């Protein structure tokens, strides 16, 4: 029983507690499954027609056996209900006045991340400090999404108009992959999460870099790209800190090129993919809210160059 109750040990992370609970439930279920299967097989062989010609002896009930089974089933149910509620209470221990480390909003089909402590805003490639619990506040901008990074915490729905909270814990720095786990439209499968856990110093450095305004280059292609970004009304949806683009309907692009992938981890950020996206967004990710601006080759060159240099 001691080992059994170790599920609730404070030394275990939420993920480990949930893992142990599922493992123990699976073991008990397996024991019951094989006990039932075994007794059926035993009865099939032992009471087969060859040994018992005619109608076998009939027993309408076995009251003692039924009582024993009832006690066993009730005990298992009570123990697992208690363990489940205890684990739930421990892993979802949200303070009354939660101060989230990251506020994440699910959009069709990308993730927006805001860091209230320092004002950093980013998209899709989300960074957290490793080695401590991180509190997320979860929202949706449109339909129901569900946040799930399997290695770091459990699954939590993002419901329009509802604020949910979730603890995440990454023991070590590294990249953790997750996915939207609630069907949210045609590109639900392309709503992947890439989460980078960093040690404290790296995380501070990353936050500082994110707060810097967007780079400004002097070469003509960059200047032309920046001009087109305004002229083609990209600024109606996207924000770039340091230039007059403050909208948050689409992902913040201030440090776009410092990320590895875009479109919710769908594609690597490189010239070819960026060009394909700007040429015909609906071909790349049908149903996405990015319109086709029908850009000329020259405009594509400049915009791809500009966005591709926003480090
Ligand atoms: Cu978002 Cu599925």
Class by SSE composition: alpha+beta
User: What ligand species are in this complex?
Assistant: dinuclear copper ion
Give the amount of beta strand, in percent: 15-25%
Give the overall shape, derived from the CA principal axes.
elongated
The parts where pLDDT drops under 50 for at least 5 residues are: none
Following the backbone from N to C, one meets helices and strands in this order, namely HHHEEEEEEEEEEHHEEEEHHH
Tell me the helix content.
25-40%
Instruction: Write down the overall mean pLDDT.
Output: 86
Number of strands: 14
Rg estimate, integer Å: 28 Å
Q: How are the strands ordered across the major sheet?
A: 3-2-1-5-8
Q: Mind summarizing the main beta sheet?
A: 5 strands, mixed
Number of helices: 8
The end-to-end span amounts to 55 Å
Task: Give an overview of the whole structure.
The protein has 8 helices and 14 strands. The two termini are 55 Å apart. With 311 residues, it is of the alpha+beta class. The longest helix has 33 residues, at 14-46. The model has no long low-confidence stretch (mean pLDDT 86). It is elongated and about 95 Å long. The strands form 5 sheets. A 5-stranded mixed sheet has the order 3-2-1-5-8. The chain has a 3-stranded mixed sheet with strand order 4-10-9. The chain has a two-stranded antiparallel ribbon with strand order 6-7. The protein has helices spanning 2-5, 14-46, 63-91, 200-211, 220-231, 271-279, 281-284, 297-308, and strands spanning 102-107, 110-115, 120-123, 125-129, 133-140, 145-147, 156-158, 164-169, 174-179, 192-198, 239-240, 245-246, 261-262, 267-268. Residues 106, 109, 145, 180, 182-184, 188, 191 line the site of dinuclear copper ion.
